[in-house]
Write a structure and sequence with these properties.
Elements (H helix, E strand, L loop, with lengths): L39 E7 L2 H13 L4 E6 L5 E2 L2 E2 L2 E7 L3 H13 L5
Amino acid sequence: MFCPRCKAEYRPGFTRCSDCAVDLVSSLDPSAPSAAPAGPALAWRGDDPVIFSRVLAALQTAEIPTHQIVDHDQFAFQPGILRPCYGIFVRREDAPRVEEIVRWAIEGEPTE
């Protein structure tokens, strides 16, 4: 089984690419151009652990793969206050959807 997007090969029994979140195919089309990933896009960065958790939960609910960083650098602080830094990255192709999801997670989803 192969991922049609990243061309990764999987053992029998797998049905979705764990990186691209697309259905696997039994063989690759040799004439299809290889779509190399453009790299991650920053979805959110900040120092509030509550907002970090809300944004991460919203993206997971939307089934958008994420990568998180948590930097507790003891030298990155303002007078005596430790300031952790959180970051959430998504695939670049998911970035257009992510902006609205992040806004809703921070401000609250609109009720209509």
